Give the backbone structure.
Amino acid sequence: MSSAASAKLSSPAVANAVRVEGLSAPITVTWEVTNRCNLRCVHCLSASGPEADTRGDLTLAEAKAVVDQLAAARVFQIHFGGGEPFLYPGFTDLLRHAQARGLCCLCISTNGALLNAEKIAELEALGGIYLQLSLDGATEAACDAVRGAGAWRKAVGALERLRHSAIVRTVNFVYTRRNAGQLDAMLALAGRYGATLRVTRLKPSGRGAESYADLRPTPAQQAALHAWLDAHREVLTGDSFFHLNAFGGRPLQGFTTCGAARLTCLIVPNGDVYPCAFTQTDFFRAGNLRQTPFEAIWAGSPVFNRVFRQPQGGACASCAALEVCGGGCPAVKHALTGRLDRPDPDCVLESAAAEGREALPFCAG
């Protein structure tokens, strides 16, 4: 986030208004430029893979026109993902066009398999590129169990090639029941390759809906994660774990409620727009860029304005923790309950009550 954007959000009153009402333009737009991928991860939020049909994807000319719209709206950052974005035809040209239009903060989420020395040199020459490499385990066995055979070696190989690069990089780690004990090892691995660790929440989106029951962290693992993140403030989380703030003590890094349709949104390969990467269902579809300009969707979408920009306390309205957790993740709530007025299914207070155990004391201070 720019210093100017940070200053705008420095006041608690302003920050709270932003969380509820949204900015005039998103700070970050996540853009899945293709669903084609060389991997087929069991928890992939967009169900990407080698077999993905790309015939309806935005052409390079259409994608450049979208960049023009984002620049006109004064979007600060584009976070390119997929699928594997390096499989999108003309991807480097799209990056150059974004930079030419003044979008100088460009992040690329990749599995690293295609990051050979030539590609790294090309990205270094562009400048201003930020890489996020997906790695879901500190060991080959743990990572490959969800990302497929060879995924760990390819990602670590990319990190090795990036070791002496000036490209800023993070390692993105999806926290699951199977790798929950590897947080310290992942932090050490990222540091070894000059990367910052980013821990994200598993959500029932795409193929993640199929694997969620098997990979969903236990309540004890959720509690352990909160304590670990609280002790490692250098680790990035975005707003992935705002639901854990109900454990009490200091809120975790990032905003204390969902940023979807307020601070960020998602564009998918065919130009559809959604509140975030985990809301890719018809219920949450806000519009399509082939029919409606981006600024009109951002400002006028009923999904954005009525669902995400108005308080949705529901069953959480009387809870003392609502201010710090915002009622949890709308994507998870809708995927697992079909409702938005229910508590987050991973609510730490609800799970304690359901199991008949005493919850950790909540502290709003």
Q: What stands out?
A: The chain has a mean pLDDT of 90. The longest strand covers residues 168-175.
